[in-house]
Structure formats: structure tokens, C-alpha cells
Amino acid sequence: MGTGTSTGVPVITCDCPVCLSPDLHDKRLRTSIMIEVNGYTFVIDCGPDFRIQMLREQVMNLHAILLTHEHRDHIAGLDDIRAFNYVLNKRIDIYGTKRVIDSIQNDYSYIFSETRYFGAPQLNIHLIEEDPFAINGVEFIPIKVCHDKLPVTGFRIGDFSYITDASFIPETELNKIRGSRVIVLNALRNSKHVSHFSVSEAVAILQDLNPEYAYLTHLSHFVGLHEEVNKKLPDFIRLAYDGLVLTI
Ligand SMILES: [Zn+2]
Ligand SMILES: [Zn+2]
Fold first, then answer.
1. How far is the CA of 201 from the centre of ligand 2 (A)?
2. Which of 29, 137, 199, 236 could link 2 by a cystine bridge, Cβ 3.0 to 4.6 Å?
3. Whether the Cβ atoms of residue 140 and residue 133 lie closer than 8 Å to each other
4. Is it the case that residue 115 has pLDDT exceeding 90?
């Protein structure tokens, strides 16, 4: 749905070659993915571009939103779930750890207020911890990664693992990812960063995990032009791009 870091790409005011690139692969909304399993539709993260992402992909039903963490680029679209409330006439199920849910209850107090106004978003909250859980019979294995000091939840669904906003993955959690056929992992830029993997750090982890295919996401304009960077990556690793569809 989106493969850009918190600013998106292009960055407002920036006139670098990536931000000015006419290649649509260099246009990156804020990071999110949609997963369809057995006819159920799940979205991981609900950032500020959620509305436009739902419209672009013509999403007609949504069964749950899973939140990786509470940073703005991952939750700022929560008010826009109202369309699903109105049109489908149902609440939307939201999954997150206690800290993440506490945070959205604080940030979106009007949604949870006892005197909530008619028209405010309607959510069903589900707390997740470290144990695997199922939604509509689809199993999700939480993977706890570190975004500098902040715990962030990644997910493994079958042979697919999705990790965003990590700067460190403990060995126990790497073992939960191992054996995935497809892995999506975050990489912010080429130089080191305190709370995100660099491209070379992400490549090293992926070479260790050795999936069939891997994609880098949560990319900034500093990574470079999509087409140029892809030529330099190992064969099984590619930059993700908005609109990328994988069938596993
Ligand atoms: Zn730029
Ligand atoms: Zn982020």
C-alpha cells in the first residue's frame, strides 16, 4: 500500500533527483501493507495515507487492522476507518499491544469517549501479546523487533514475514522469521540510523535469513532512485514499491 518513510517520497520542498523523479516507483506513500487470505482482508498499519491507499486499491471490505506501533506515520489514518463503519455498517477490529492501544486511546480520545459523538470511528479493540493469534482462522505470529528502544510488532503469516521500523531483531525473533519464503524488511537509507536498518544492514540480515524473495520498505529519498538501487542489490532482494502485489 505504501513503502515510504514517515515523510513520504517525494519529501515536501525537496528537489533532489529522487523527489523529482518521474518514475512512479519513486513515489512512496507512508508504509502499510494489505494482506488477503481466504477471502479476508487485513491491513497492517493505518498511516496518514490510509484513505488514498484504500481508494487506490478499491478496497471494498476490511476485516482487521493490525498496528505495529504508535508512531504517527503508522496510525494517523485511523479516523478514516469511518467510511467502512458507515458503508459496511460494522465496527473495524484493531489489533495491537497494550502500549499501542493505550497510546491510540490517548491520541484519539474522542473515539473512546463515553460521550462519543455520532459519526466518530467505531473500533473493536483486541490486545495482542507475544503469542500467536488468529483472526477469522488466519494465524498471525507476532515478531518483536526494536525501533531503537521502542518495541515494534512484526508479523509472520504462513510463509510471509513483514517487519517495519526495526533497527535490531533479537535472535529469538529472527528464528520466528526463518523459513519464510518471502520477507519484507525495512531499510531507511544507506548510512546508519539509530532507529532503522540501513540498506546494507537489511541486506545482511536477509542474506542470513535466506528467503526466496525479499523486499525493502519504509524507504527514504536518501536510498536513491528505485531503478538504480535495484541494479545493485542481490538478486533475491528488491526495493518494494507502492502497488506491488505478491501472490504466495
Ligand atoms: Zn528528496
Ligand atoms: Zn515508521
1. 17
2. 29
3. yes
4. no
